[in-house]
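tl;dr need the bound structure. longer version: we got a ligand (magnesium ion) that a collaborator sent over and nobodys looked at where it sits. i said id run it. heres the input, straight from their email, havent touched it
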Amino acid sequence: MRITKIELRHLKLPLVSPFETSFSRVNTHETIIVIMQAGPITGYGEIPASAYPYYSSETVTTCWYIIKNFLAPSLLKLNLDTPVLTTPEFKRVRGHNMAKAGLIMALSDLKARSRKQSLSRFYGGKRAFIMAGISLGVEATIELLLDKITNALSKGYHRIKIKIKPGWDIKVIQAIRKRFPALMLSVDANGAYTLKDWRIFKTLDKYRLLMIEQPLGYNDFLDHATLQKKIKTPICLDESIKNPEDAQLALQLKSCRIINIKQARVGGPIAARKIHDLCLSHKIPVWCGGLLETGIGRAHNVALASLPNFKLPNDISASERYYREDIVNPPFTVQSDGLMKVPQGIGLGCEVNIKSLNAYTLRKELFA
Ligand code: OSB
Ligand code: MG
């Protein structure tokens, strides 16, 4: 079977509440849905690039441009069984991992559906449930953040991650520890510090954090290795790991003890699985990060997180944590024990709600 059509949808969705990180504060999220057709089968992928080049250098606009001009033409008419990463144009286009990832996700969904398998099964997943976790942004006051944590715990989340930045770190973590002594807590700086700030992280050692995510520069490996030697808390890399070679480098240099895998960031599920396998062979646990995905990207993330070395709770929350109305049915939910079911139906394992997909679409384009 051959790929006959690729459609892109640029979506803009209101968030249930604003999300603030060390690099921005947003009320809405922009993402691209990839709809790929082969004969009678449709596959879906998502590119959660956002409107801004702040988390990653890619945006919805750069992804659209690269897909329209380079990647989509090279995929049309391609046989479903051709390994897409080896096609000349995919190899020739350097970088643009998110653009590539969305296409490979849609292709994977197509392939899983053509074999009548769930995406989890297709990816080699073993878990029937994955560990949900929640990532909470910077708030106006510590008291407001404590309220958000209380609320998250009441919804079943067992691991809370908070965003930190200079001026919103030690005193916040101290207050959380005072109120929730046994909480499984981690922090994410999104690269907001430099090695000169190492004493801050040394101080954090006493708060029993599960990990410190991306404390230093988004391209850095060496300073992270130096910092990891100075502190006891495991460092987890997110932004620095853009492909399997980066993961290899980080493991070799001991820049981190944990890796956050986002398939959008690393170029898709194939690269994600390579990083997973590499980490497994080095006894380094991984977990699945998130980029505020809609139900389509979430289904891909849940399927990926069902692989065996996803040993730590993921940044995968219920649909309602992000959106009042998701674009899939049923929406993703978290159980009171903090677990989320891995859909067992074929492909994504949930229905795409075309009505809400249409309602949030800003523009669309068809390549055939
Ligand atoms: O660094 O993990 C991050 C959201 C947007 C950009 C970067 C990050 C995040 C999150 C939220 O932490 C994860 C999620 O719940 O989707
Ligand atoms: Mg992160």
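gonna send this back to them w/ a short note. The first strand starts at residue 5 and ends at 20.
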